[in-house]
Every structure is written in structure tokens, then in C-alpha cells.
Design goal:
The structure is a single chain. By secondary structure, this protein is of the alpha/beta class. The protein is built from 13 helices and 13 strands. Helix content is 38%, strand content 15%. A 7-stranded mixed sheet has the order 2-8-7-6-5-3-4, with helices on both faces. Strands 9-10-13-12 form a 4-stranded antiparallel sheet. α3 packs antiparallel against α10. The longest helix has 24 residues. The structure holds pyridoxal-5'-phosphate.
């Protein structure tokens, strides 16, 4: 079979997701495991979203509203932008895919912070374009380095704020100077998957830079703070001219009817949002204190996850933790062979993680 697959497709390294709980339990024959590896909401889905899904179930024989009218209307009021400036995606990953189809062709370049979210590289390579990686400065995006990497071929720059996996953030002022220095034919994608968790009020918000004359796209998702990762729904906010182009190549029913109904309801669930932020922020403070007490180096975060230096091979640590039914994320493929990323969980999950860690590292109880 000779399919003539282009080399740029063959050379893509597949995205490696966090290990699912079901896979761990199947492979190790254990139960009651916990997962702190994919930055998911430990409280479960928004209850208002679950109710909305119940109500929407009776219409599953109908196609979804391909224009997502009601969700767009709800979002435009929530964000203070026009519906024509929003594109709905099957997760924000879907918007990344649309941007790559619409904007990139073979030989073009994108600028990608390294390390950051691995999908930026994958969508770039899918279009035959070249990812130009700019190393982080410490654990923060090197915005000056990214500006210096711009060439005639640069079409898109990815900015993850806060950054996954490092948890670092960009201030409003730093973002403003950066955007002013980017040529107007280059699209800046600001990925705000974790923006709701930010506690530092100097942080930049992509929507403050929304301008019909400026090619800035802000990505948001319902996967994290609203607890809807399994449903797959997210969106991008951008100049309407760009939104109109993305809507032409968007699969007509990319956001299913349950996801649309749940997302609208989740936006009304302010109680759930507050409860989530409370649990996450308390959990982070507790984990930082406990890891610090054990002499392990932690790195600051503005997100619901953080990195710590486990002081030995992170893959080994990951494997050992699996035996205790705890899934963490080794940062080896992100270029940090001794760093581990975990998200804050429920109080009992955080304690369970620490007990397992003490066992694995042979620390005194
Ligand atoms: C989790 C995450 C997303 C969200 O992806 P979805 O496709 O909306 O689930 C996007 N960007 C980053 C950096 C993430 O960590």
C-alpha cells in the first residue's frame, strides 16, 4: 500500500494524553484510583450543565443548531463581544485546527514557546508548516525571543497564558508591548484555557486586546473550570472577518447539542465556579506547603496545576505512583526529565497523593 503520505504528516509525534483512570485500573487490576494528570475539575461537571443535558436528551434525534445561535448569544452577553466575533469549537483544540487550515500552508512558520501545549506543534505540522520553537526564559514565555524569531514566513504565534505546563503568566503590560511589536499580518493566538484560575490581578486578558483591526485570537474552553472536558466544547474570540473565515471551514455540527446546552447552562453556574476556585486555590496552597515541608522544590502557578522537581527520573516516579493508584504527569516529553505536573484535587485526593509520594520516595511519615 503506497498512500503517498506527505513527510510532514509522517513526522508528527502523536499527542500523549494523561493516562485515563480506566486504563490504569484495567492494567494494574486496582480500584479507587485518582487522577491529577490532566488539569480536570475534581468537583465533577457543573450541576446546572448536567441538568441542561438531561433536558436536551429528548432532542438527540435532531441535528444540533449548526450556528449555535443560543450559545453564541449567551457567550456574547457573558463576554461583552458580538456573536460575530465568536467561533464555537469541539473543544478549543478544534479552533486550533481551524486556524491551521485557514492560515497555514506548506513552508509557512509558526512561533511556539517551548515548553508549552503540545497541540500547537501538531496543528502546525498538520498543515506542512514549520514550528519555530522559542525556549522559555526560566519557566516563563520569552516574549522578546518570540518577537526576534519573526520572519517573512511567520503566520501565527502561540501564546499560552497561563502557560501549560509551567503555570507562568504574562502581565497586561508585557502583553500590550508584545502585541504592539507584532507585524499586523501575523495572527497571535492567546490560549486562555486556565485564565479563570489566575490570582494575580496584573495578568493579561486576551479580550482586552480584541480589536477588529488587530489579528488577536483568544481561546477559551469549558474543559477545565466548568468541568466539561468529556463533552468537548470551547471557543475562540477574534475579529469578525477572521471568525467568518473559520466558520466557512468549520464542520457544520462540530459542537453537539448536549455540549451547546451544557455550555450555556455552565455560564450561569456562578456557584459552581466559585466553589471550584475555592477548592483549587485551597488545594494548591495545601500542596505547596506540604511539598515544601518535604524539601521538594515547587514552582509558582497561576493555574490549577503546578510543576515540582521530584529530584529523580520523573517517568520512574510516574510509574511508581501508578502502583498506588495515583496518576500524575511526568514532564519528560516537555523537556523536564525530573519535573512532575499535578493539578490540585479534592482535599482527600491531595492527601492521598502525598501519602503515595511519601511511600514512593521513602520519606518518613
Ligand atoms: C486543556 C487545554 C486546552 C483545552 O482543550 P479543549 O480542547 O478545549 O479540551 C487548551 N489549551 C491548553 C493549554 C490546555 O491545557
Amino acid at each position: 500500500m503506497n498512500l503517498n503520505i506527505p513527510d510532514y504528516i509522517k513526522n508528527i509525534s502523536p499527542y500523549v494524553p494523561g493516562k485515563p483512570i480506566e486504563a490504569l485500573e484495567r492494567e494494574y487490576g486496582i480500584t479507587d484510583s485518582i487522577k491529577l494528570a490532566s488539569n480536570e475539575n475534581p468537583l465533577g461537571p457543573s450541576p446546572l450543565a448536567m441538568n441542561a443535558i438531561q433536558t436536551a436528551l429528548g432532542n438527540l434525534h435532531r441535528y444540533p443548531d449548526g450556528a449555535a445561535f443560543s450559545l453564541l448569544d449567551r457567550l456574547s452577553r457573558h463576554l461583552g463581544v458580538t456573536a460575530s466575533q465568536i467561533v464555537i469549537g469541539n473543544g478549543s483544540d478544534d479552533i486550533l485546527g481551524m486556524l491551521s487550515i485557514a492560515l497555514l500552508k506548506s513552508g509557512d512558520e509558526t512561533i511556539i514557546p517551548s515548553s508549552s501545549f503540545l497541540m500547537y506543534e501538531i496543528v502546525t505540522q498538520s498543515a506542512g508548516a514549520v514550528p519555530v520553537k522559542v525556549p522559555l526564559k526560566g519557566l516563563c514565555l520569552d516574549l522578546e525571543g518570540m518577537l526576534a524569531a519573526i520572519t517573512d514566513r511567520t503566520r501565527m504565534i502561540f501564546v499560552c497564558n497561563p502557560n501549560n505546563p509551567t503555570g507562568s503568566m504574562i502581565t497586561h503590560d508585557a502583553m500590550a508591548s508584545f502585541l504592539n511589536a507584532v507585524p499586523e499580518n501575523v495572527v497571535v493566538v492567546i490560549d486562555e484555557a486556565y485564565i479563570d484560575f489566575v490570582r494575580d490581578d496584573t495578568c493579561a486578558f486576551g479580550l482586552n486586546f480584541l480589536d477588529e483591526e488587530r489579528a488577536v485570537v483568544t481561546l477559551r474552553t469549558f474543559s477545565k473550570v466548568y468541568g466539561l472536558a468529556g463533552l468537548r466544547i470551547g471557543y475562540g474570540v477574534m475579529p469578525s472577518r477572521l471568525a467568518e473565515l473559520l466558520n466557512r471551514i468549520r464542520m457544520p455540527f462540530n459542537a453537539n447539542s448536549l455540549a451547546q446546552a451544557a455550555a450555556s447552562a455552565a455560564l450561569d453556574d456562578t456557584d459552581f465556579l466559585e466553589k471550584t476556585l475555592g477548592v483549587i486555590h485551597e488545594g494548591l496552597d495545601y500542596l505547596y506547603g506540604e511539598l515544601g515541608r518535604r524539601g521538594l522544590k515547587t514552582f509558582p502557578t497561576q493555574s490549577n496545576f503546578f510543576l515540582f522537581d521530584v529530584g529523580r527520573d520523573a517517568k520512574w516516579f510516574f510509574e511508581q505512583m501508578l502502583h498506588h493508584g495515583v496518576i500524575v504527569r511526568a514532564m519528560t516529553s516537555y523537556g523536564y526529565p525530573e519535573y512532575v505536573r499535578i493539578n490540585a484535587g479534592l482535599p482527600e485526593e491531595n492527601r492521598r497523593f502525598l501519602t503515595a509520594l511519601d511511600n514512593v520516595l521513602g520519606l518518613p511519615k
